[in-house]
């Protein structure tokens, strides 16, 4: 498999083509294709077992596709066949991810967790780090400045020196989001960002996602079950069913697809939550 790919359209950051994944006799993803455009929030929806997280794991390089490919066109580099890259290089390509089950260092402070995320961008060698050379000191200052910017952006000042183990669940979700932002990604993968959150915390998450897109210019690819959040923040939605693409379009277009209500959302009342009123925006924090 080659590492470089033909050029993508200028507005496309990531392209998945004919992705198929088999686990033994189980077909988890079947011929899935889609584009993620620069500067949008693109959301995968569907019931448990639909293949959404498997697609995420393909992009994160946790899984290797049985067939198909993913092309990624980060700024300043030729488009790459992402499925030919090793997992440890993904963050360096400008892709960051959060997880449905929070993956933080619980017995370290919020600041330390964010610095760990930031240090994935360090380029100094082992001996330079060991000797703490002037170049390393300068890099450490820049890292701490970036971390403090993210702390301010997500209103985490009150928690910066607290241990993660003592924080409420909703704050931990924001800390994990902050750690991903510390890597300065072009593409942010959010796996169930509202999982475990109450209504107020979910509204806050919608606010953060909109600001990440609008203020930081980061493209967001999200897996989400909360249709209220999906309708508030998504530019386009891909509905999956049994590993296949069922519908792709705006929240309204996906809502109107004849198979979506029955396959994913149950009753017509559930589907109505996908409708986004004209000009609606997430409520901002007081």
CATH level-3 fold name of the largest domain: Rossmann fold
**Poorly predicted spans:** none
Instruction: Tell me the total number of β-strands.
Output: 10
Strand percentage: 15-25%
CATH class of the largest domain: Alpha Beta
How many domains?
2
Anisotropy-based shape: globular
> What Rg do the Cα atoms give?
19 Å
Q: Based on helices, strands and strand pairing, what is the structural class?
A: alpha/beta
Total helical elements: 10
Helix content: 25-40%
Q: Determine the mean pLDDT.
A: 85
User: Order of strands across the widest beta sheet?
Assistant: 6-7-8-3-9-10
Please characterize this protein's 3D structure.
This protein has helices at 52-59, 110-118, 126-131, 134-153, 169-181, 199-214, 227-233, 251-256, 260-265, 268-271, and strands at 12-23, 26-37, 41-45, 67-72, 80-81, 95-97, 187-191, 219-223, 236-241, 244-249. The chain contains 10 helices and 10 strands. The chain folds into 2 domains: 1-94 and 185-286, Rossmann fold (3-Layer(aba) Sandwich); 101-184, P-loop containing nucleotide triphosphate hydrolases (Rossmann fold), CATH 3.40.50. The protein is an alpha/beta fold. The radius of gyration is 19 Å and the shape is globular. The strands form 2 sheets. Strands 6-7-8-3-9-10 form a 6-stranded mixed sheet, sandwiched between helices. Strands 2-1-4-5 form a 4-stranded antiparallel sheet, covered by helices on one side. Strand 1 (12-23) and strand 2 form a beta hairpin. The mean pLDDT is 85.
